[in-house]
Write a structure and sequence with these properties.
five-stranded antiparallel sheet, alpha+beta, single chain
Length: about 475
């Protein structure tokens, strides 16, 4: 909205209120301008009367001035005719008489013209005001329409911009309502909002014959009972029956498969071991609709309305400790962070920890070599070891990124768009730059150059990269680029 010079809205509720009150706002603008036109008509009527009086008075004054000048000239002419001097004076008087007679003739012949010239500006103003008054009298609504046109056009422009974002607005409002509802859960529950993750190479789903390059889900809730994938839809009944809208069932099942593949073997080894074997991390699929849901049930997905969400989540019995829940959350957070997405937040208002704990606690695991003995040992520094390992991996990754950046100017590089909603290509390395076009998700671009300074947007700091996309050159913010 700011890119289109619309800065008056500070919340989703204000946008929605604007949409609901659009017709009322139109009528209010027309009503206000109707009052203004009525006031203008009244003012014109008074000004016309005043101007007519002024012109009449001024005309009389000018006539009197000219008659006075004419009388004075005639007296001068008479005094010259009766004078007798020497030849030089006679000749001089002759010339004066010629000038006086000429001026007398000009006044007598052009009296009306001189009067008209003197009051010409006032007469023109009077004509304009009379024409405007007559137009308002005979075409009142047309005058109102002309007066209000700019304000109505600006109102229509804002409405068009908001209508284009209508799905996004109501979707964001629904996601916010879900987040608010989940804030009431105990502190053991951790919420990741707007989870996005890309995979290279893609994850292959043999059953669906689908190569999964990336997934996006509105919310991931990590609980003592496992993981809940939550896709929020703020849909009307019409939207529920619209066959052209993408099925959220398929979307969430796709995300479930990808996360199952990632978690299997990579996170289960970090959990407390059980002598029966490798533990399962349950992943449950939820689609939450704000007000209404379809009557039908679907395989592998639970459909809920918002008021059913909390009771459903709390129904399941815990199978993980708080420490294990935190480990799962940290792993998913690292995936979300490494793919340059929004920073997830804990759901509690008391700012729950989303970092690995380095307290001197202990984790237990079963020794596979002596599993029959069911011998459980304590790893005093287990959690610290995990944290050190993660830190070392981050150090290697950052070193690799730094090396890649250092050699950037010497080797061509490509990247893919990692934002599900696409990424704006701008004419300069700034969020204030003009939008040239929007590059769709997963499209490839060629890196040309890198900006000297980074920019912080919504709490994230990243550089701008100059890229070429199908012959169009511009700048992209690195936070949503996946380097190839």
């Amino acid at each position: 909205m700011r890119n289109h010079n619309v800065n008056e809205f500070s919340s989703l509720n204000e946008l929605i209120t604007f949409q609901k009150n659009y017709s009322g706002n139109q009528q209010e603008i027309i009503s206000n301008h109707s009052i203004l036109i009525e006031q203008e008509k009244s003012t014109l009527n008074k000004e016309i009367v005043q101007l007519e009086d002024f012109i009449k008075t001024r005309k009389n004054e000018i006539e009197q001035e000219l008659f006075f000048e004419l009388e004075k000239l005639k007296q001068q002419l008479g005094s010259l005719l009766s004078s007798h001097f020497n030849i030089f004076n006679t000749f001089t008087n002759y010339l004066k008489k010629i000038g006086i007679k000429k001026r007398i003739r000009e006044i007598e012949l052009n009296l009306n013209l001189e009067i008209a010239y003197s009051i010409q500006e006032s007469t023109n103003t009077l004509t304009k005001k009379i024409n405007r008054y007559q137009y308002i009298t005979s075409h009142f609504m047309d005058a109102v329409k002309q007066s209000s046109s700019l304000q109505l056009k600006e109102l229509e422009r804002k409405k068009s911009l908001i209508d284009e974002l209508n799905t996004t607005i109501y979707g964001a409002l629904g996601e916010q309502k879900v987040s608010n509802e989940l804030e009431n859960l105990p502190d053991e529950y951790i919420l990741i909002n707007d989870f996005t993750c890309s995979f290279y190479p893609p994850i292959y789903n043999r059953k669906e014959n689908d190569y999964i390059k990336s997934v996006q889900i509105d919310h991931i809730l990590i609980s003592p009972a496992g993981i809940f994938l939550i896709e929020t839809k703020n849909w009307s009944e019409h939207s529920l029956n619209n066959i052209n809208l993408r099925s959220p069932v398929e979307q969430i099942k796709r995300t479930n498969f990808a996360l199952f593949k990632i978690l299997t073997g990579r996170i289960t080894n970090s959990l407390d071991h059980h002598h029966w074997g490798e533990r399962k991390v349950p992943i449950r699929n939820l689609i939450v609709l704000i007000n209404q849901k379809p009557r039908e049930e679907f395989q592998h997905v639970k459909i809920l309305i918002l008021k059913e969400l909390r009771n459903y989540v709390e129904y399941f019995k815990p199978s993980f400790s708080s420490k294990e829940t935190q480990i799962i959350a940290n792993f998913l957070l690292s995936l979300n962070r490494d793919n340059f997405t929004k920073t997830p937040v804990p759901i509690s208002k008391s700012e729950r920890s989303i970092r690995p704990s380095l307290d001197s606690g202990s984790m237990t695991y079963s020794n596979v070599d002596t599993i029959n003995k069911w011998k459980t040992i304590k790893l005093i520094f287990g959690v610290a070891l995990i944290a050190i390992t993660i830190t070392f991996i981050d150090f290697l990754r950052q070193s690799f990124d730094s090396s890649k950046t250092a050699n950037f100017q010497y080797s061509a590089q490509t990247a893919r768009i990692n934002s599900k909603k696409g990424l704006h290509l701008r004419d300069q390395p700034s969020s204030r730059g003009k939008i040239l076009l929007t590059i769709p998700f997963n499209e490839k671009v060629e890196i040309i150059d890198k900006s000297g300074n980074g920019e912080t947007i919504y709490g994230q700091t990243a550089y701008w990269y100059k890229v070429d996309y199908n012959g169009t050159t511009g700048w992209l913010w690195n936070e949503y680029l996946q380097m190839q």
